[in-house]
UniProtKB/TrEMBL annotation:
Residues 2-237 form the ABC transporter domain. InterPro entries: AAA+_ATPase (IPR003593), ABC_transporter-like_ATP-bd (IPR003439), ABC_transporter-like_CS (IPR017871), P-loop_NTPase (IPR027417). Belongs to the ABC transporter superfamily. It is an enzyme of class 7 (translocase). This is ABC-type quaternary amine transporter. It comes from Streptomyces fuscichromogenes. It holds the Pfam family ABC_tran. Its EC number is 7.6.2.9. PANTHER family: OSMOPROTECTANT IMPORT ATP-BINDING PROTEIN OSMV (PTHR43117:SF4). Gene3D superfamilies: P-loop containing nucleotide triphosphate hydrolases. Signal peptide: none annotated.
Amino acid sequence: MIQFDAVHKRFPNGTTAVHDLSLEMPEGGVTVLVGSSGCGKTTTLRMINRMVEPTSGTIKVNGKDVTQQDAAELRRSIGYVIQQAGLFPHRTVLDNIATVPLLLGWNRKRARARAAELLETVGLAADAGKRYPHQLSGGQQQRVGVARALAADPPVLLMDEPFGAVDPVVRTQLQDELLRLQKELNKTIVFVTHDVDEAVRLGDRIAIFRTGGHLVQCAPPAELLARPADDFVADFLGAERGLKLLSLQTLAAVPQGPAPRGGDWTLVLDPAGKPLHWSSKETELPVRPLKDGDSLLAALNESIASPSGLVARVDADGVLTGVSSRDDIHVHAGQAHSAARVVAA
């Protein structure tokens, strides 16, 4: 757990970056810090590993006051990922990942073996270890940055807008990879972003800051979206916060029935029972099958796009299990909103 107790940070020019912050970041969870530029979110993150020193107050990581620890040792015990990866250009990928273990006194063979293991963990091919950073794409470099931060198996991982410099498709892939890794590794992650959608997708808790370093609200995503603390939070989350709430609910509970036969539209399957397309007398249109774990928002979008108003449901192997109607999806979307408001209250 990371605990901030009345932490204040004022810079020499008189600017207050963080104002009397009291906040707990649960062990094994992802706490996302969001807010506009200059609101103190990056300063808050950097105070955890003492890259910025607090003016007053206490910060504890797993019960230990960070200001009472050697700064260099503290930083080696905390993973740190930044935008643009921050890799050493003159070192191979494998040696980049092995940096912290070597600083901790591991022998070269052990450090490089750990680095090779982490290449697979973050979804990179083994031969990537022989390359240099400039030979990788932006998304691959960010994966290397995550691997380097994980190399010494730190309990805490700090991530400062790590996916902000890549295109939207790669960003989604990196988010998926982080969610997968977190399920496996269960780290305490503090993640800074200015993107509300990214915060909702990744965070177990979201802390919203306003200019001057004031914490306005910290809550699980569903609670935050259902019951923003004030107009500032509501405006920051945006007019589509109801749709964002649907992105947190899955399709699993929506009823399904057999695909219709003989109507205006027929769902055509391949020999293995996997959906191919919707077919009518005049044309064929694409189908986007969904699984139980897909969101209600995705189901709502697909029900609108589908010419039949039906969403094809498939199992883990992509085989059709049934279809769900647009009306049933709408009903469950409304129920999800109501349930979230009750829980938040």
